Amino acid sequence: MNKNKNLKILSFIMFTLVSILLFFFIWNIINYRVHYEVKRNTVNHPEFIPSYKMAKITSAWFENIVADFYWLDSIQYIWSNAATSKYKVYLYSMLDLITDLNPNFSFPYQIWELLLASYNEKYEQSWINEQDKYDKQALNIWLKWIKNLCDTNKIEAIKKEPNIEKIWSDNKYSNPCVDSNIPYYLAYIYYWNYHDWLKSSEYYKITSANKDAPTWSRIMSAIMQWKWWNRETSILMFLSLAESLWNKNTQVCKDFSTELRNLLLKIHGTNLQLSEEMVKNVELTRKAIEKTWSWKVDESLTNESDCIRYLDKAVREINLQFLENADIRFFNDNKRHAVQWRELLEKWYIKYLPVDYQYSKDLPVIYIYNKETGHWDNKVSDMYWE
User: Any residues with CB less than 8 A from the CB of 337 and at least 6 apart, and which?
Assistant: First the structure.
């Protein structure tokens, strides 16, 4: 009796397994035809791209494979419209569907979004307002990439961390994304397409927290803060770069950069302004450090030991911040900005004239008020001695 009962149970189990396998076999045959037809329609008629819900229902729980199908379709679609910008019309819909079906599929994010954001008026037949739309679509895909493949809690913590050096050394900020290209490309589109220096700086900073990130990402983070005219932050970031890019020959540069950054953090924390004595001492110390070097300076922007390059940039920003503070007083008294640094000296708003690290008698670099940006900046001039 028990033997017959066990046989019936075993038969039922076998029947169930065979039925399930047969169901999947028939379902996949049907779906293959469906997806083949969709594949052909996607290339020839991209306006018929299915919704994510419909694609998921017909995928038989093989969303990743279906995502691969649509990825190949998108390649054919772009190729068939490569002569013009018409491939952009439905590219975002394709990308959105592919990354919904397989959120971890990096290639669609990384490659096609760059096509959406790129524009060449020589061969693309798209109006500026249309390109603005495609830029926004590219940004949406990038932010989706961040959401799906990055630790958003780490990203928010990195954005709020004022001590830039910690981002590169503290493990709690380490590797916020599975690939450093994710925030790197987002920083690029904020810089190149949106001219949003602040956002660009943030995502270059997030990029730099990844262990596989190039040193260039740290540099760009500081440069973007400078282009945003955030003097205090850019100074601290350039000093952080000077601290991190050094060798035994540039130990003194590293030590001075560390001391200067700690001092500035205290000054900024108490809302004090830079004194003339401090600006003068910083410049004299920087010159003394530079004189101790007897080797040829590597001109590579990513030189791993070029401490002085970023110390120089930090000192330039300190000089400009010092002059901007003086110009505020000048403006309050004269209802206009000073034309250049010499006017501030002549009218006693400063007693010390800071000298740029690129100063030379042949082509002196001077500091001026830039009317276009509304900030103090540097430029090369032959009129320094007039």
Answer: 327, 330, 331, 369, 371
Between CA 282 and CA 276 the distance in angstroms is 10
Q: What separation in angstroms does the CA of 185 have from each of 177, 203, 217, 223?
A: 12, 9, 11, 16
- Distance of alpha carbon 245 from its chain centroid, rounded? 20
Cβ-contact 240, 169 below 8 angstroms: no
Q: What are the tokens at 142?
A: 């990038």
The alpha carbon of residue 289 and the mean position of all alpha carbons in its chain are separated, in whole angstroms, by 32
pLDDT digits (tens, 9 = 90+) for 297-307: 554 445 555 78
DSSP string, 5-18: HHHHHHHHHHHHHH
Site of tokens 């380490």: 174
Beta bridge partners, 340, equal 368
Read off the pTM.
0.68
- Sequence-distant (6+) residues with CB within 8 A of 56 are 63, 101
Give the tokens for residue 345: 């000296």
Q: What is the pLDDT of residues 46-83, one digit of tens each?
A: 666 888 888 887 777 778 888 888 888 888 877 777 66
Alpha carbon distance 5, 11 (integer Å): 10
Strand partners for 377:
368
DSSP state of 249: G
**What are the tokens at 76?**
């054919």
Rounded distance between C-alpha atoms, residue 42 and residue 94, angstroms: 9
> Do 340 and 376 form a contact (C-beta atoms < 8 A)?
no
Element (H, E) at 63: helix 63-80
The average pLDDT across 199-220 equals 86
Q: Can you tell me the distance from the alpha carbon of 268 to that of 49, in angstroms, rounded to the nearest whole number?
A: 55
Question: Are the C-beta atoms of residues 47 and 90 closer than 8 Å to each other?
Answer: yes
Cβ atoms 245, 198 nearer than 8 A: no
- Cα dist from 190 to 37, 80, 159, 184, 227, whole Å: 39, 30, 15, 10, 13
**Is residue 338 a contact partner of residue 349, using CB atoms and an 8 Å limit?**
yes
CB 219 within 8 A of CB 301: yes
By the 8 A CB rule, do 356 and 286 touch? no
Distance of CA 178 to the CA centre of its chain: 15
Tell me the domain boundaries of the chain: 28-149, 158-326
Cα(22)–Cα(320) distance, integer angstroms: 76
- Torsional sign, CA 263, 268, 270, 274: positive
